[in-house]
Every structure is written in C-alpha cells, then in structure tokens.
Design a protein that fits this description.
There is one protein chain. By secondary structure, the protein is of the alpha/beta class. The protein is 41% helix and 16% strand. It folds into two domains: 258 residues, 3-Layer(aba) Sandwich (Rossmann fold), CATH 3.40.50; 165 residues, Rossmann fold (3-Layer(aba) Sandwich). The protein is built from 18 helices and 15 strands. A seven-stranded mixed β-sheet has the order 1-4-5-15-10-11-14, with helices on both faces. A four-stranded parallel β-sheet has the order 8-7-6-9, sandwiched between helices. A two-stranded antiparallel sheet has the order 2-3. Helix 2 packs across helix 11, helix 4 crosses helix 15 and helix 6 packs parallel to helix 8. The radius of gyration is 21 Å and the shape is globular. The protein binds pyridoxal-5'-phosphate. The site of pyridoxal-5'-phosphate has 18 residues, from helix 12 and helix 16.
C-alpha cells in the first residue's frame, strides 16, 4: 500500500470503542507472581484486599484466567467524551529524520487530565460508585493521575482525596488548581493528617516527599475511614487491564490499513501505558501467531528493568502495601530529580516484569537531555508538546527510525504518546536554558537500596 493512502490521523468511530478489555494474563504461560501479605508472607485473597480496593477491582486484580472483560456501558459512555484516541502517522517526523521507517503513535493526551491515566481512573471510580462507596483516596506525583481521578470522581459524584508529593505540590500549583476545580481535596505529602505522614515528617524533617510515601498516606487514610477505598494509577494488574483499550484501538486502526508494526515502544514508569499498548500484540506473540519487537523505555535515573532486580518488594515507602514481585530498585530508592515525574517509581508492573523476565520484551534506559532533544524535534515537526514521560518513547522511536535509515529497512514503528507537557514547562525551561543535567545512580546507590528488600522466598 502506498504511503499516501494512510491518513495522517486514523480515527475510529465511537461505535468502534472496544466492548471488552483484554486481560493478557489469561494467555501468559508463566503468570505474574501473586501479591503477598507483608506481615505473614502469605498469598493475598479476595477478602484480604477488600478493605483497600473495591470488590470488583480486587476480582479483576486476582483474575489470571478471563481473557475478555466486558467494559460496562457507563464507562464506555465516559470513554466517548475523549475516545477513540487517534493513531497518527508521523509523516512530518519521518521526513525530518529522512528515514524509510514508518512511524505511528497512539495519542492519549487528548483530554483535560492530559494523559492515558483517565482510562483506568474512570473504571476505578465507576466500580467504587457501584459499590455505594463515599469516595476514593490516592497519591499523585507529577499530577496526571490525581487529575484523572479527580475528573472521574467529579463525573460520578464521589469524594476524592489526593495526597500530592510535597515537591510537586509546591512546584506545580497549577496542577493542584485543576484538581481542586474538579472538587478534589489536595493534601501535600507527607502531611500531618495520617499516622504515617506524621512519622515520616518526624524522622525526616523538611522532606519534600516521594511517591512511595504519598501511597502510604493514602492507604493509611482509607484504612481509618469507612466508605473510602484506595485507587492506584499504575503497576496493578487491574490498571493494565483497563489500559488495554489503548492497544486494542491502536490495533484496530492499523488493521484498517493492513499495517503490522515491527517494533512497539512505550515509556515505562509503573508500566500501565506500555502494558496497555502492547496487550493485544503480546497476546498474539505469546500464542505464537505473530512476532513483534517490544521495547520498554525508562529513565537512566530510575532504571527498574535495566538495572533493578526481580524480587518481592513493597510498593510504598511506609511498607503498608502488599508485596509484589517485580523488577525493582528497592522501595527505599529515591530517584534523582528527573523531570519525568511519572517515571520515578522504584518498581514495575508484575505483569510486565514477568513478560520481561521471560524474554518476551526488551528494555532500554535513556538520559533526560537526550529525551528532551527528542521532545523538541517532535514538538517542532508533529506540533504536539509532549510530556517528558512520553518523550522517552519518542527518543527510542527516533533511534529505531535512524537505525532503519542506516540499513534501509522500511520498518513500521508504533509508539505510545501518553500525554502532553503543558504542566512541565519548568523542565522545558531548564532544557531551553541549557541547564538540564543527567544524574544516573551508581551501582552502589542501587546496591544499597536493593540490600533492604524484604526477605521473601
Ligand atoms: C504516569 C505517566 C506515565 C507513566 O506511567 P505508566 O504507568 O508507566 O504508563 C507515562 N506518561 C504519562 C504522560 C504519565 O502521566
């Protein structure tokens, strides 16, 4: 098929919004390891998790067998406000790179929260509402997840309480106002509103907080307040399930033009957008129907896949959450002040960790100045101001396209453009002023936090 036959944007119609999420775990030969109780080391069951998450979500979390999970009509109706999202052929970027490769991206930044996180936020809020709960509590780092959950709770009339990492709260006051406009209560973390926050503040006076610490506070809040549950924007199996909508749509769009991606690329913080984008492709790969190269891209400052260990670890600093087996840098690892806030998590989705461990996908790490160079080129050619997180995937897609230029291969490259960067202009300012640096942890830094991993067999 001639290039020009493929439109710049491949839209699907509202009726083509998938009716089912796809659960890749059903096809995995080696299932992701189960969550464990941090006190007893025992496998967590439905009833153990029901005081943290609402029941339907616990069911989804533990379900390794059902391949297709029906998307409730109410969620599909909400999806219609901003989905299907476009799959774009990056003609202008290809031209600038003078590459024979065909580059496609799935754009998830077309909603006010500015990222793919809304796909899972609305699902989590919907099930909470259905269960008759009063509200949800959560943490947010860069702010995209907190905004997505605030939006979803506003839509459904639920209370929303967001523990925002103090440094972001102070540096991104605009983000906070978006959440407050959606009706959320935003609390800088560590705060004095939870036992754990008080403890952390006492032990580390003046701390500007971390994602792991804000998670502990949100979980602490729900365990002391009836009618509230906790919501998490990444890492969990349920989140991977909801995000499969990204890959299902991208695949339908490409199928319309008989385009088969050779390489699929996504940035990886906790793994949700990548897990979602690759889901249907990975299913085919596991079932032996097709082969794809799949690449996770992470920041060199927080390299869970490429330099972490595959082990059971806590998801939070306060060590109140269940233990998950994942690629991790250790729950006490504090990444340097990288500007891609959404990629600063010490661990990784247990689903993706298992797939990576089984050699079904690759991972690379990239330095942030290189990432911003890619963001700049992308912005100038394709017109979209990308989120720093998304720009990790752009960097890798450009590198792959440049390799094609050397070899003359006409590969199809698909990457996830997870969001926009309007709230990241301080980072862009640093880059534009030539003041951005690349801080990479030493082997000793990583060894130190990995030495503190819980001892679980
Ligand atoms: C949160 C976020 C990410 C990283 O999270 P994943 O769970 O790894 O997808 C990537 N891009 C944007 C824009 C985000 O907000």
């Amino acid at each position: 098929m001639a290039h020009t036959e493929i439109p710049y944007k491949i839209y699907l119609s509202e009726n083509e919004i998938p009716r089912y999420w796809y659960n890749v775990r059903a096809d995995m030969k080696n299932k992701p390891a189960p969550l464990l109780n941090p006190q007893t080391g025992e496998k967590l069951k439905q009833q153990d998790l029901e005081h943290i998450f609402c029941s339907e979500l616990v069911k989804q979390e533990l379900d390794n067998d059902t391949p297709q999970v029906e998307i409730p009509q109410e969620i599909r109706d909400f999806y219609k406000m901003y989905r299907p999202s476009p799959t774009v052929r990056a003609y202008c970027l290809e031209k600038a790179l003078d590459t024979p490769a065909h580059i496609y991206y799935k754009f998830e930044g077309n909603n006010t929260s500015g990222s793919h996180k809304l796909n899972s936020a609305i699902a989590q809020a919907f099930y909470a509402k259905k269960q008759g709960l009063k509200g949800l509590a959560t943490e947010t780092g860069a702010g995209q997840w907190g905004t997505a959950l605030s939006m979803s709770c506003a839509y459904l009339g639920l209370d929303c309480r967001v523990y925002m990492v103090k440094v972001s709260y102070e540096q991104k006051p605009a983000r906070k106002e978006v959440m407050r406009t959606y009706g959320a209560t935003v609390i800088p973390s560590p705060s004095n509103t939870t036992e754990i926050g008080i403890k952390i503040n006492k032990e580390h006076p003046g701390t500007t907080g971390s994602l792991g610490c804000a998670i502990s506070e949100a979980v602490d809040f729900v365990s002391h307040h009836d009618g509230y549950r906790y919501a998490l924007g990444s890492v969990l199996n349920q989140v991977m399930l909801h995000q499969s909508i990204i890959g299902l749509e991208a695949k339908s769009a490409l199928d319309k033009y008989s385009v088969v991606p050779d390489v699929i690329i996504g940035c990886a913080g906790g793994g949700s957008n990548l897990g979602g984008l690759i889901a249907p492709f990975m299913g085919e790969k596991i079932r032996g129907e097709k082969d794809y190269r799949i690449i996770a891209v992470e920041p060199a400052s927080c390299p869970s896949f490429t330099r972490g260990v595959y082990a059971y670890d806590f998801c939070d600093t306060g060590r109140v959450c269940p233990l998950a087996k994942m690629y991790t840098l250790g729950s006490q690892f504090i990444p340097s002040a990288n500007h891609a806030g959404g990629l600063r998590f010490h661990g990784m989705s247990p689903v993706l960790s298992q797939l990576y461990h089984d050699g079904l996908m690759e991972a690379v790490s990239v330095e942030q100045t290189k990432v911003f160079e890619a963001a700049e080129l992308f912005c100038r050619t394709e017109g979209i101001l990308p989120a720093p997180e998304s720009s990790h995937a752009i960097r890798c897609a450009i590198d792959e396209a440049l390799k094609c230029k050397e070899t003359g291969e006409e590969k199809n490259i698909l990457f996830g453009l997870t969001g926009t960067g309007y709230f990241d202009l301080t980072a862009y300012q640093k880059f534009n002023d030539g003041e951005m640096n690349d801080i990479i942890p030493t082997d000793e830094d990583i060894a130190r936090s990995v030495a503190l991993l819980p001892k679980v067999q």
